[in-house]
Amino acid sequence: CLKVDDENPDVVSYLTAIPGNTLARIYNEYRQMLLEKNVRTYLRNKSKVNKQIASTLKEDPTKFFAYNNGISATVKSIEFGTGGSEFAPTIKKMDDLQIVNGGQTTATIAEIAKNGGDLSNVFVAMKINVVRNAERYNEIVKAISTSANSQAGIKKSDFDSGDELLKEFEKISRSEKVPTDGTKWYFERMRGQYTDERNSLEGYNQKLFTQDYPKKQMVSKTDIATVAVLWSRANASNFLPFNI
Fold it and tell me: How far apart are alpha carbons 20 and 8 in whole angstroms?
């Protein structure tokens, strides 16, 4: 990797190229945990961009590095190995790796590998931001993620996916059962999360997931916001517009 020679007291940045097979192996082991600080999870091959990524990987893998913008990641710390040089050391270990931009690229590569695709000639540009300010760690990571994703195709509601209140709401939705039939509501904190989690399972496990979390009971951040606003207005006017 190459260290970016700046004077940022909070963040130290490095540039590198990660082999496609390595990136796929990491994602297929940790999946959504790797995208916790991202604004959305894998949207699969629904989007035009994801289809183009998959097409390049299959048909012209040697040009992937040139065609793709790469990924941006944050870590708490980084450890170097004995290889390389003083100005271009090799990376041995990264702590709390989070891909904050390029989640679609990462997951598409992992999907190709999972289906037996050849990634031996695929390399991905990677920017690694080591956040050194422990007290402001979450704040800085969120700022990096928001800035990196300020582009077309990102909804405003996506930027709040890492909010602690939403994380708590997500935990509740996974544990509280619907009294009538014992199923659960699935709160989709990150866009595409429901489909990605369901498709990461196979056979009977996927069937159980669908039974526990029916697609009709998947709710988004905007759904929750709509109910919250209606509830607030109803209480303010002492009028309930719906049955509780």
Answer: 30
